[in-house]
Amino acid sequence: MEPGDAARLGRGRAARALPPRLLLLPLLPLLLGRGLRAAASASSSGAAAEDSSAMEELATEKEAEESHRQDSVSLLTFILLLTLTILTIWLFKHRRVRFLHETGLAMIYGLIVGVILRYGTPATGGHDKSVSCTQEDRAFSTLLVNVSGKFFEYTLKGEIGPGKINSVEQNDILRKVTFDPEVFFNILLPPIIFHAGYSLKKRHFFRNLGSILAYAFLGTAVSCFIIGNLMYGVVKLMKVVGQLSDKFYYTDCLFFGAIISATDPVTVLAIFNELHADVDLYALLFGESVLNDAVAIVLSSSIVAYQPAGLNTHAFDAAAFFKSVGIFLGIFSGSFTMGAVTGVVTALVTKFTKLHCFPLLETALFFLMSWSTFLLAEACGFTGVVAVLFCGITQAHYTYNNLSVESRSRTKQLFEVLHFLAENFIFSYMGLALFTFQKHVFSPVFIIGAFVAIFLGRAAHIYPLSFFLNLGRRHKIGWNFQHMMMFSGLRGAMAFALAIRDTASYARQMMFTTTLLIVFFTVWIIGGGTTPMLSWLNIRVGVDPDQDPPPNNDSFQVLQGDGPDSARGNRTKQESAWLFRLWYSFDHNYLKPILTHTGPPLTTTLPAWCGLLARCLTSPQVYDNQEPLREEDSDFILTEGDLTLTYGDSTVTANGSSGSHTASTSLEGSRRTKSSSEEVLDRALGMGDQPVSSRGTRLVFPLEDNA
Q1: Which of 23, 450, 509, 603 is deepest in the core (most CB within 10 A)?
Q2: pLDDT value of position 179
Q3: pLDDT (average), residues 641-662
Q4: Which residues on adjacent β-strands are paired with residue 701?
Q5: What's the pLDDT tens digit per position in 13-40?
Q6: Secondary structure (DSSP) of 474-535
Q7: Can you give the residue ranges of the Cation/H+ exchanger transmembrane domain (predicted)?
């Protein structure tokens, strides 16, 4: 062993002999340095993480602020569109311009803004790389994605075709102005449909009730199947010539026939109202458009519910067909019942409470009950459009009589304003959607075929039905009326809302694009040609809405205690549809007294053993008022007693009995002042060319045969 080795060994032995604590002393600086560096590193990494988190929160806040700003810009765009539309409407009315209606004007402004947004604004957003989920066999409505330990929620927007992945819209503004279709159904459609029922001129509506029901139900079904079958032939032709790039089934064609059968002659009716066109023609068109919207939406739901058994889900199956018919009847009747019941409940609440002392609360309750009808029907699986329509009719017939004077005015004006704004908003959005909607499928063959099919379907709808209806009508639907109804088959808000509700498949996207173009054409071209068509067809204008049209028979006499007001009431009662005459007695004697403050006391109409119930349900106002309260437009409801109508060789009373030429009536109308009667008589003399002679209590209207 070398001396150096011994020395090193000694030092090693001495070191091994030292206590462990002493051995760590030389390592303390090294350990402390490493610890300090580790602590500093941990502190710096923690600070970096905090800074990163703060940056992410700041970026999130900025994105939320930017999204809020874009939402404000999109809503401001539509508000400015409506404002510009209103100002231009005033200018048109001031200049008496009738070739373009406000809805067509709103569509033009929407088109202009759509072009600006599409081609004048730069792309402000982008898409990251796509993530493949090949293990899943279906799409999820909500998806949670784990990104570096943080979970993000994504919602389903819809399917994108393989050829359109790179052309997905990257402009955030255009995405913002593309509304969810449910906005149209749950927010914009209810006030439009409710206003149609609430503002219904019931006198002329019920006088033509049978014809309106025939056009709305039978005519819409005929139009749907004719258009559907013709379009199926067009689809087969497209397949032969190679212009069909995806599946298009027969049920899709029927669905298109259902949604495009919903007419919306808003332009024509507005011109009719402004020119005071023939009231019966107005009632036929308005009544058909109101009811066939409801029929079209239920019919489209029934077609969607058509599910044949077996592998081929698009083949004809008798059991599935009758099931769809049952679904149609069930949905329509259930929706009708729900709307009527809601109106009855509102009438009872307003009758048996003192809400009329607080008009604001009364109006608010009326508004909420009416709107909730739509949502309640949709939540129960029925159709809100049908429910809210018949709710509006029921509210106008019963609840309106229980409201205070302030609430009557408020509810009329409130729903009129909401209807105006919602309808013009939808038409503005139509113009905007032509350039901002991302899933358009333009097919010239399909579009041309749709126009031809709609024309033929409307013709098969109007002319054959009018022929059969004229067999039982006293006042025939003339050829000029039929041509005008054929011409007035415009498409509008309901067809658009039904088409945009589902645009997931290739067939539905093609239907939506075609429906949009059809609405444009009918509103602009047909709506603009309404006034010349009225002149060409020799349809009378400048007619007093309270004036009855001349009959087509020889002569007409009214034996009455007073002037033309009572005469008008007699004719209205006699010439109302037979269905209404059956309903009138029950409604007047029982429902009106139960639900309103009008009508005869129930103690006089119910059996004696129901005396306690009759006294509880009869309003004290019925006993206090010598003359029952009447609605402004309810001339078809006559509460003064039986009326007598002398027509031809027989005398017919209001309840349908006949007798001799002479009869007497006891009417409260005889209490009216002489000046009021003379004013009505002067108006009748001014509006017609036929001489009218007044002899005491008898009015004789010699009328020519208008066959």
Answers
A1: 450
A2: 76
A3: 38
A4: 556
A5: 444 444 444 444 444 444 445 554 555 5
A6: SS---HHHHHHHHHT--B-HHHHHHHHT---SHHHHHHHHHHHHHHHHIIIIIHHTHHHHHH
A7: 85-536
Q: What letter represents residue 371's amino acid?
A: W
Decide: 139 and 159 in contact? Cβ < 8 Å: yes
Give the pLDDT confidence score for residue 344 in this predicted structure: 95
Distance CA 566, CA 571 (A): 9
What pLDDT is attached to residue 322?
84
CA–CA gap between residue 154 and residue 152 (Å, rounded): 7
Q: Output the CA torsion sign for 629, 634, 637, 638.
A: positive
What Å distances lie between residue 400 and 37, 71, 348, 350, 689, CA to CA? 83, 39, 11, 9, 37
Q: pTM here?
A: 0.75
Tokens 């990104």, residue located: 147
Strands 150-155 and 142-147: antiparallel
Mean pLDDT confidence for 584-611:
85
CA 81, distance to chain mean position in Å, is 21
Both structure tokens of 647: 């027509």
The DSSP string of 205-255 is HHHTHHHHHIIIIIIHHHHHHHHHHHHHHHHHHHHHHT---S---HHHHHH
Q: How many Cβ atoms are within 10 Å of 625's Cβ, its own excluded?
A: 12
Q: Bridge partners of 650?
A: 647
CA max distance for the chain: 160
The model's pLDDT over 613-647, given as tens digits with 9 standing for 90+, comes to 888 888 777 766 644 444 444 444 333 333 333 33
- Kindly report the number of other CB atoms within 10 A of residue 643's CB atom: 25
* pLDDT given at position 632: 44
The residues, ordered by sequence, that sit 6+ positions from 229 with a Cβ below 8 Å of its Cβ are 253, 257
Cα–Cα distance measured from residue 428 to residue 114, given in angstroms and rounded to the nearest whole number: 10
Determine the residue type at 420.
Answer: F
The token pair that represents 240 in the structure block: 């032969």
- CA–CA distance, 496 with 489 (Å, rounded to integer): 15
User: Picking from 17-31, 343-357, 464-478, 590-604, which range would have the lowest pLDDT averaged per residue?
Assistant: 17-31
Sign of CA dihedral 437, 443, 444, 445: negative
Q: Helix, strand, coil shares of the chain as percentages rounded to 5?
A: 65, 5, 30
- Reported as a single tens digit per residue, the pLDDT across 264-298 is 877 788 888 878 888 889 889 999 988 998 899 99
Q: Are 246 and 507 in contact (CB under 8 A)?
A: yes
Half-sphere exposure of 277 (CA within 13 A, CB side): 26
* CB of 283 closer than 8 Å to CB of 216: no
For the beta sheet containing 556-559, the strands, ordered from the edge strand earlier in sequence to the opposite edge, are 658-659, 650-653, 644-647, 556-559, 698-701, 693-695
Closest CA to 173 of 127, 120, 128, 117: 117
In Å, what is the CA distance from 618 to each residue of 193, 254, 601, 653? 32, 50, 6, 28
d(C-alpha 199, C-alpha 506), whole Å: 39
Nearest to 473 by CA among 484, 460, 482: 482
pLDDT computed for residue 124 by the predictor: 60
Find the radius of gyration of the CA atoms of the chain: 36
Residue 407: both structure tokens together: 């609430």
Tokens 């005008």 sit on residue: 484
